[in-house]
Design a protein that fits this description.
The protein has 184 residues and is an alpha+beta fold. 28% of the residues lie in helices and 26% in strands. The chain has five helices and seven strands, in the order E-H-H-E-E-E-H-E-H-E-E-H. Helix 1 crosses helix 2. The longest helix is centred in the middle third of the chain and has 14 residues. The radius of gyration is 16 Å and the shape is globular. The N terminus is likely disordered.
Length: 184
């Protein structure tokens, strides 16, 4: 099935600049609606430091998602063999970990978050080396579980990370394309 959206515009991505984008990110990650991002009490310097560490990490990358050239969401891509999930599952060649954050808004647009996760997944699978996307959202984050399922993720099991009880889920390229209604 193709996803109907009630907005128009084009998504693009650019590397996150930890210093230039810190103020914007700080407003996103510390907002009460971003509780699952686990940075509620972070100061501006904490956000700068966290994203400077990501920028320096060969196994973790942060991108800003842009809608018509304006910052609209955050995407993180990581190598689960080296970050986040080390020792919690057996990574396979072509596994890529992903996080995304859509900032809160006073004027929500129906279908926007699903459009964002679709853009993120398309971006990840545009790399032919990506065979499977791995996510580990908090088990209580039912909204993201529904979004993940909508784009093809299949939950495998609950795991305990240092920060949370998480639902380990996977999505292959074929599962993603099938969820989009594209013949495989």
């Amino acid at each position: 099935m193709n996803f109907p959206f009630l907005f128009t515009g084009a998504f693009t991505f650019r590397p996150l600049d930890p210093l230039k984008d810190a103020e914007l990110l700080h407003s996103w990650v510390t907002h009460p609606k971003a509780a699952y991002w686990m940075m509620q009490g972070a100061g501006l310097e904490d956000v700068e430091r966290a994203y400077m560490e990501i920028a320096a990490d060969e196994h973790h990358h942060a991108l800003l998602g842009l809608l018509d050239g304006e910052p609209a969401f955050l995407m993180e891509k990581y190598d689960p063999a080296h970050r986040e999930l080390v020792g919690l599952y057996e990574p396979q060649p072509g596994d890529v970990g992903m996080h995304f954050l859509v900032p809160p808004t006073d004027t929500p647009v129906h279908g926007f978050t699903r459009a964002v996760i679709t853009a993120v997944m398309t971006r990840l699978f545009d790399d032919p080396a990506t065979a499977r996307v791995v996510v580990e959202p908090d088990v209580s984050n039912k909204a993201v579980h529904a979004l993940n399922e909508a784009v093809g993720f299949v939950p495998e099991r609950q795991i305990q990370t240092p920060e949370k009880k998480a639902l380990l889920s996977f999505c292959t390229r074929e599962q993603y394309l099938a969820a989009r209604g594209v013949a495989v």
